[in-house]
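ingest -> fold -> write
write: protein_1
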Amino acid sequence: MAAELVRVVDGDTIVVRLAGGRKERVRYLGIDTPETVHPQKPVEWMGAEATAENSRLLGSGPLRLVTDVEKRDRYGRLLAYVWAGPVFVNWELVRNGYAYVSTVPPNVRFVKEFVRAQRAARAAGLGLWGSRE
């Protein structure tokens, strides 16, 4: 489904406007990024960088959201794989070390691709897999 970006919340959550004008909070499927806006947790290492990378990737073109088996999480957020033009945002965040694989069955459509990307990022020492210096 087509969507227009309203704002980036953090590295794995955005707010979009769908056709008809309805706003939705979207949580990326298959990945997790360090916290930056959790009410009971401090900003985690690489959280700000993950949010910035998410914003950068989302600028690659019009947004397209693809859902999996379950459409919403327990908080009512729409769960989706996100493309910005030709860029698969969820996968790019993992591939570049800004996110790690975090799947919740039955939403596992791209788990193999995410695991391969995470292995490569870890082997290269990118982002979360790099030094904390």
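write: protein_2
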Amino acid sequence: MIYAIPLAGEMGAGIGAALVRSGNTVLTCVEGRSQATRLRAVDAGMQDASFTDLARADIILSIVPPSLALDMAKNIAQAMPDGAAPLYVDLNAVNPQTVRQIEAALPDSVRFADGSIIGAAPKTSDAKIPRFYVSGPAAGEALALRDHGLDIEPLDGGTGAASALKMCYGALTKGNAALTAAILMAAEREGVGAALHAEMEDSQRARLTAAENFIPSVYAKAYRWVAEMEHIAAFLGENRAEAGIWASAATFYQHMADDYEGDRAEIDAIDRFLARDDKLRR
């Protein structure tokens, strides 16, 4: 089986490696990509290919930043030969309205499944494979990917159901991470970091442990989550008050991304909080 994972990044390379281990050929395009991305593709056993070759694959898994998802579908459609009927699974963190636009951008002959990924990119051969949820017209066909080492779960509902689930899950996990990081920064700015850390140690141990395990991994990814928060805000509805929470989270992640590329003053404040061992005693 020939798979295409266009512009494979960390997640795409992890999935590609799993598919290669199952005996498949996996194509990607590394032209213009960073050296780290190129090396990940090589290590995963993926083969560099043109968009024309990608468009001729049996199964196309689109795993790109949300801002590129629609253009990716359009580019693949343009490169696809007449009458081609690959299985195209869109696995991007986009809102249901966008995924319907993605489906409409592809030729009618394409078998389309809306998809979403829950979990981290597998970085080793023994790492857990993230779960793929699929819905839409070709969701049943996508279940065959279980035979190729992927964890696939079908969802009732048409195109948009899997993307809606991703929006909800991402709002909870990444939205909560933004709220937590913002408060840790505030505590350090106001000089109450030690007191908050001690209180969380006493009454919110699970939340503190979650922050210790998750927040440091956010810094380098923050730039990628800006568009996802914007998609979540659109998913909730621009006229609903709660949409503003995730619109603000998008702004916060952009601020964190800028800090990560800059002097890291905010990130250093979070690290000080999480590394604290001078717990106050009552």
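write: annotation protein_2
The longest strand covers residues 111-118.
The two ends are 63 Å apart (CA to CA).
pipeline exit 0
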